Amino acid sequence: MATIRDIAKACGVSAMTVSAVLNKRQGAASAETRERILRVVDELGYHPNAVARALTRRYMDTIGVVLVYRETASLTGNRYFGPVLDGICDSCKLHRQRALIITEESWEEACENLPSYFDGHCDGLLFVLPTVSDEFLVAVQRQNIPFVIIGEHRSVPSLSVADLDNVAAGYDATSYLISVGHRRIAHFKGNSCFLSSTQREGGLRKAFAENNLSVDEPLILDGHYSKESGSEQVEELIARCGADMPTAIFCGDDWIALGALDALQKRGLRVPEDVSIIGVNNDTEGAVSSPALTTIDHPLRVIGRNATEVVLGQIREKSASGEKRLTRGELIVRGSVSSLNPMSQFS
Length: 347
Fold this sequence. Notes:
Layout lengths: L3 H8 L3 H8 L8 H14 L5 H8 L4 E7 L12 H14 L3 E7 L2 H6 L11 E5 L5 H8 L5 E4 L10 E4 L1 H14 L5 E4 L6 H16 L9 E2 L5 H15 L6 E4 L2 H13 L9 E6 L2 H4 L6 E4 L2 H17 L7 E4 L3 E2 L15
Parallel strand pairs: 1-2, 1-3, 3-4, 4-5, 5-11, 6-7, 6-8, 8-9, 9-10
Antiparallel strand pairs: 10-12
Helix pairs in contact: 1-2, 1-3, 5-13, 8-9, 10-11
């Protein structure tokens, strides 16, 4: 591969002159010399060394995306990772950045491999759904490399976050159920290891408090973000309530809701006539279920774009860390919620 020194030797000029011409510096050489250098560059097939140029500029124009991925899963087809990565790629393309995908088997393994993230290949990092402690992330911050957490709204002031406004999601879902007349509302939670589960429950409690209603604690059920969990939570709810079922269920996400929907129907309960259901995420499967699922949208592609914009602000503009870029999801009303209030604006 030809080098600047090869071009300089062929043209009878210094390497500094060749570099100045290639970087389009005014007055670096006469028009004749410039033309000769560019002709030799073309003849020798010279291409600038991207790493060397990046070291000169002090930027690699590369953002690392760290996530846990196992071979049995589909990365681009994943209902969470796929749209988030699309958003990251959207923003990287717009700002002429590369995205380097760094996959680990677990977050424990990511912690062990952490030093490799700071080897100079990336200008900043995006951690997707990190189930690690705040203390660990603060330690990462001491490495003096910009990073943003995607999908986990950490409250530590110094940590930058791009996420759904999970409190607002729980609040909006519950407020909608209350507005159409529901008072006994169950809540099927997601994974306890994700802060989103606690935050969505917090939104439910906020809506109850603002409407001067008391939460019926036995109707708050722990679980996981899966259809299987939704089905199991229905069985637990029936065991607790018997014939005195709540009139509505706020599910931590759409997969929980779809599992609950199937389990209720198998038990002979009608949705929404006997029990209304609302979820979070706006998954495609919920849009075509019977009945179609009322939900709070989770704009994952937008969140991926936002995360990239935030980390680029830290890299290029030296913005301070700690920004919380939270996106409020839109309420999408479909057929899985019935109104107990004939005068409701939503009925």
